[in-house]
Amino acid sequence: MSGHAGESFAELPVAPKPPLRRFHQARWDEPIIFEQSRPGRRGIAVPAAGVPAVELPASVRRAEPPKLPEMSQLHVLRHYVRLSQENLGVDQAIAVGQGTCTMKYSPKVNDRFVNDPKVAELHPLQPDDTVQGVLEVYWRLEKILAEISGMHRVSLQPASGSAAIYANIAMIRAYHASRGEGRQRDQVITTMFSHPSNAACAKTAGYEVITLMPDENGYPDIEALRAAVGPRTAALMITNPEDTGIFNPRIEEFVSLVHGAGGLACYDQANANGILGITRAADAGFDLCHFNLHKTFSTPHACGGPAGGASGVSERLAPFLPGPTVEFDGSRYHLDADRPQSVGKMRPFLGVTPNVVRAYAWVMALGAEGLREVAETAVLNNNYLMHKILSIPGASAPWGEKRLEQVRYSWQGLFEETGVHSEEIGVRAADFGVHYWTSHHPYLVPEPFTLEPTESYSKEDLDEYAAILAHVADEARRDPEHVKGAPYNQTVHKIDQTSLDDPKQWSPTWRAYTRKHLA
Amino acid sequence: MTADRPMSPDASRALPGPAASAPSPAAPAAPVPTGGEVLTVGLIVNPVAGIGGPAGLKGSDGADVQREALARGSRPGAGDRAAQAVRTLLARRPGTRIRTVAGSMGEDSARAAGAVPELLRLVPGDPSSSRDTVAAVEAMKDIDLLLFAGGDGTARDVLDGSPSCPVLGVPAGVKVYSGCFALSPATAGATAAEFDGRTAEAEVVDLDEETYRRGRVGPRLYGTLRVPAARARLSGRKVGSSSAAPGSAESIAREVVARMRPGVRYVLGPGATTMAVGRRLGLATTLLGVDVVQDGELVAADVTERELLDLAGGGETHAVVSVIGGQGFVLGRGNQQISPAVLKKIMASGGLTVLATQQKLAGLGGRPLLADTGDPEADALVGGHVSVITGYRESAMYRIRSATEEFPA
To answer: Where does the record place Low complexity bias (chain B) (predicted)?
Structure first.
């Protein structure tokens, strides 16, 4: 603006922002918290309790104290704030790119309910009479989810979506066993574009898994289902819409084919953002379904728990629900553990109560019409974003443009032209403060990327996101090596991902890291 | 969470997928013969292509191997396959002019398909050789498209002749790994009939047959040819066993062995996955041959079609074959020992089991598995859906059909 070198703080008005954000991620070069430990440092000096010490039995006593990091409060806070700055998520970025993982805004007011002492200080062993309020929340949320899915009863005990799927397969197993067909029905059918936890849970529960591949229109091949069902079929476990965002209009036929063979049909509704208030699992004839509270009902993700999952069942499967169940006699809530056919506990006590409270608060704030509006807005946002993305040369959406809440796109055209892979486009996009996820493996859609805008994002957000991808695609044409060298503005530049796939290297805990890499 | 974590770019790149196997686009072609115009198609047949397959010789390169194949009872089939392609071409685009070489290098096939060919001034050797193919390619002038029938070795010869127009391979060899081949003879005819001038680059790969016979697989890239841009109907370059998923062949083998029943005979086709089955059984089965096992014993190794006809005769017999990655062929590519007659016997008493990793199935891009034994009647016996073992206690139900079914002559 003037002749000064560098940026001036004094001049007004402030220069307009360029179309693309000049983003730079925080880079703290932060050590692992265990490496910051100093003997004797502590956050809180706890005063003497004033009661005599209790002698613990030797069997529960530690030989040596746990090796927890010793740090002051400030340093603990600073550590986690720094890590949070070296991150991308809904609260600071346009997080439409986590695909099937559904990143929607979780209203902060719901955290206030969770932090309220009435919830935060609950003890799992309190007598029923002193926890009527939280039991009522469980009971009411169960009724609401039963209404949303059309199911007879719902369990909120599972601590995550996959735990809910596992609860479902456990109920399927118990159902067939109760009819003397447990051994005979040893196969579970799923589809390639279904949530992979279905295949994983079925296998963990001891089933042989048969996968249906998509037909030429992107729908699961119904003729393959016809060939697969039989006296060995325990269940069909299927997602709809699948990870492609394509809704299977013949889903009732799928269900009746399986029912015809004596199997059960289980609907994976991990992500129900495209169908809330529009279709119901029970109406398509399903016997079981589940929701991930964090994908559809706005609770935080938790990487395998403690998140929140809900298992819904039809009347004939209700005896097998995880227990204890929350019951209401018209005046009082209580727990019913006397359920002889129950598959047992999925989780100690009731489940992850804070997430049940958050989901309840979210649903109550929206009401029935609001829930349907969530689905409509999510579908509208997705179709708007699809329109923007498909106008980028080199991007495509295999199997047409009829999608609900997400799309698995392909950069195949761009790759053929430039040699730049989808992963590289996604990493370069991170230089502008956004990211995306490609696809489950194996890739059926070549050079895939999966976007799901949900109801949370504004038109401006979607415009900005599409503009970033358009810019990176253009860069790939002009200077592919630059894109392949990305990221440049990120916390970490290049990382070697082999440690993710090598059991000898992966270290989910400090203890494992110490053993595998520092020994 | 459905999306557990982003996968490493390197790992994903190693996976066979349409991305890796599809021909890449090339510059727009010169003159465009549209549907209404008369198309002139060149035809070159390698009459000995594929002759080594049924004899278990893994290829047909070289006069010695060809003589040995004839001695083992093989009969040449490339001419018939070329005729099938021309028949489909003429049915779909009547009036197409065929220019070819006298005798078994094209004329016989063209006439068998009902064409009246124009002949090049060229006298091939008897038997014909690589040199004749190269010379024929060089002599082909003023044609819109060159059809050639053969395998990867023939594709290399065509490449050496520097064709002046786009080419399309009619699969007739033992090894058909190159991307310039149509899925089947009929598909080649249909693709040629619909050729509108748009082209793509396709890779020519070949194996050293000597090392291949000794059990090592390693295709080399020799160059690229311009082919009609009709990607779905081309084979796509073969994608080898993926190193990205170690253990998957072992996991598949574990399932195959778990399903084996006493008293039943299993015909193991060639490939790394079926080899893993042999390894799990503790048997010295061969990587590239067809082997027969029963009750944990190796009944016969590296059998010929004739031997197999006898072995498949007594009692329940199952064929266990793997999928050629990127192409989807389960019969008729590298396992010609499982001939139409053998397949008919097997399907009458037992059945077909297909082995493939999920990655391999994904790499087919939705296309069906294909049977191309050379006899549509035999191929039809396996048509419909087949259980594909993808791992231990894991399978996929997948479409399979005769390669000629979609484009009948």
So the answer is: 11-24
Given CB atoms, is A96 within the 8 Å cutoff of chain B?
no
Closest chain A residue to the Cα of B6, Cα to Cα: A437
For residue B79, give how far its alpha carbon lies from the nearest alpha carbon of chain A (Å): 33
CB-based contact, A499 to chain B, within 8 Å? no
Amino acid at B203: E
- The reply to whether B239 touches chain A by the CB within 8 Å rule is no
**Residue A224 DSSP code:** H
For A452-471, write each residue's pLDDT tens digit. Answer: 999 999 999 999 999 999 99
Does residue B393 sit at the A interface (CB-CB below 8 Å)?
Answer: yes
Mean pLDDT of chain B: 81
pLDDT of residue B2: 37
What percent of the residues of chain B are helix, what percent strand, and what percent coil, each to the nearest 5? 30, 20, 45
**Which amino acid, one-letter code, is at B267?**
V
Region B219-232: mean pLDDT is 72
pLDDT grade, residue B307 (50/70/90)?
very high
Report the candidate in A45, A42, A47 with the shortest Cα–Cα distance to residue A76: A42
Predicted local distance difference test score (pLDDT) of residue B220: 65
**In whole angstroms, what is the distance from residue A359 CA to residue A413 CA?**
41
| Least trusted range by pLDDT, from A167-171, A416-420, B15-19, B400-404 | B15-19
Asked whether the beta carbons of residue A441 and residue B396 sit closer than 8 angstroms, the reply is: no
In whole angstroms, give the CA distance from residue B5 to residue B13.
Answer: 16
Q: Does A236 touch chain B (CB under 8 A)?
A: no
Report residue A206 CA to chain centroid gap: 24
How many degrees, rounded to 5, is the angle at CA A377 between CA A375 and CA A380? 110
Q: At what angle do helices A353-390 and A132-149 cross, to 10 degrees?
A: 30
SS3 for A407? strand
Q: What is the pLDDT of residues A9-27, one digit of tens each?
A: 667 888 888 989 999 999 9
pLDDT tens per residue, range A239-294: 999 999 999 999 999 999 999 999 999 999 999 999 999 999 999 999 999 999 99
Task: Specify the DSSP class assigned to residue B367.
Answer: P
- In 3-state terms, what secondary structure has residue A250? coil
Residue B244 pLDDT:
40
Q: How far is CA A113 from CA A109, A353, A355, in A?
A: 7, 11, 10
Residues from chain A that touch B359, judged by Cβ atoms under 8 A, are: 441-442
Cis peptide before A442 (omega within 30 of 0): yes
CA A125 to chain centre: 29
Q: Do B9 and A98 touch (CB under 8 A)?
A: no
Query: Which amino acid is it at A134?
Result: V
Nearest residue on chain A to B392, alpha-carbon basis: A208
Burial A52-81 (b: 16+ CB within 10 A, else e): eeeeeeeeeeeeeeeeebebeeebeeebee
Neighbours of A113 (CB within 10 A): 16
Per the confidence metrics, is the pTM higher than 0.95? no
Preceding amide of A306 cis, omega within 30 = yes
Q: Do A211 and B358 touch (CB under 8 A)?
A: yes
CA distance B196 to B28: 11
Place of tokens 């009829």: A402
Q: What is the DSSP string of B379-407?
A: HHHT-EEEEEEEETTEEEEEEEEETTTSS
Instruction: Write the CA distances from A148 to A128, A141, A275, A291, B216, integer angstroms.
Output: 28, 10, 10, 10, 59
Q: ipTM value of the model?
A: 0.88
Residue A244, exposed/middle/buried by CB under 10 A (0-12, 13-18, 19+)?
buried
In degrees and rounded to multiples of 5, residue A403 shows phi and psi of -130, 155
Q: Which amino acid is at B288?
A: L
* DSSP structural state of residue B181: B
**Contact (Cβ atoms closer than 8 angstroms) between residue B309 and residue B345:** yes
Interface A-B: count of C-beta contacts within 8 A: 136
Contact in structure between A309 and A162 (CB atoms under 8 Å): yes
